[in-house]
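Supplementary Methods S3. Input chains for the assembly prediction are listed below.
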Amino acid sequence: MHTESVGEKLSSNMEDYLEVIAILEKDKGVARVKDISRLMKVKTPSVTSALNVLADKGLVEHERYGYAELTRNGKRIAYDVLKRHKMLTKFLSSILKIDPHVAAGDACKMEHTLSPETCKNLSTFVEFVETSSEVDRPLWLKGFDHYLKTGKRIQCKNKQALEKVKSGK
Amino acid sequence: MHTESVGEKLSSNMEDYLEVIAILEKDKGVARVKDISRLMKVKTPSVTSALNVLADKGLVEHERYGYAELTRNGKRIAYDVLKRHKMLTKFLSSILKIDPHVAAGDACKMEHTLSPETCKNLSTFVEFVETSSEVDRPLWLKGFDHYLKTGKRIQCKNKQALEKVKSGK
DNA sequence: TCTCTTTGTTAGATAACACTAACATATTCA
DNA sequence: TGAATATGTTAGTGTTATCTAACAAAGAGA
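Predicted structure tokens for the full assembly:
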């Protein structure tokens, strides 16, 4: 029996454990203490201890010396976190051009702390860029890439045409 | 005498204390325990305890029953954090259109955890938007605002002109 | 099957950070 | 000046999350 209570907000750490377990379940079929400890970069006793907490909250099932398994609630939370993680990684690496490894690290921290509002709007922003009708990336984003690299704006070779677009005439 | 050592990375919490002290020094001239406790939303004993830690690291000076004052090193760190805070707040509120209060909260968390790379590129992004030659906000950003509100893209009224701009002809 | 290796758990220590209750100093103003 | 009030500190506790050392169970090969 666990002592779960509804409003109880999960710590960043516990969310991370859930996320890692979800990844392992997906990649390897099962989540073992040793693998969790490797991905979380902690020693195995820390994992055992975390699993006890999570089991107590009804988010994982865990028999002594056995695998960890996400419950329905555990999955719900883990998938939410993973979704945010992916969105953030995409924003950082594909729009801000952050090295993927660094981007993943930053995403790992942001995924737990950002407000739902920010997540939502950032997600919309990524979508806005990705579903652009232009083939590669939107023109302005190419302009930003250039600005990132050189600190200078791309000179517009057709100001008149640009003005036309801007004024919508 | 303090026990500062160079590589020692400051915790998010201690960075927050420095930031709050910097804000109070700027706003009120001096930083008092009570004001710090109010801004940090903790009780006064937590402040006393934090000040001891920070004094030990050579980041604040604090006489019993007196004010807290940032040292040169303390200021350096506090101003860095504040700079990131302002940049992040601007990004969230002015580009992502997050409610200022929520934006400030999110900035408070991100300011401690984002990698230097991400801070730098995000900062460049904000600058890229702000120094746009267009009067209000860049055209594409207006497009994003509309997309945020409606979920739909602004229809381009002059596709040919847009194509001309895109191809640079 | 029996031993060796791997994996997992328990117990106990430590660190960071918050809290309450009790005490000490400062400040205010009658 | 001397209470009353406001502010700051100390002492002791609790929580979360980590670790090491020692022990327990599972699995694999000869």
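Residues 32-34, 44-45, 47-49, 64-66 of chain B lie near DNA strand D (CB under 10 Å from a C1'). The longest strand of chain B covers residues 60-62.
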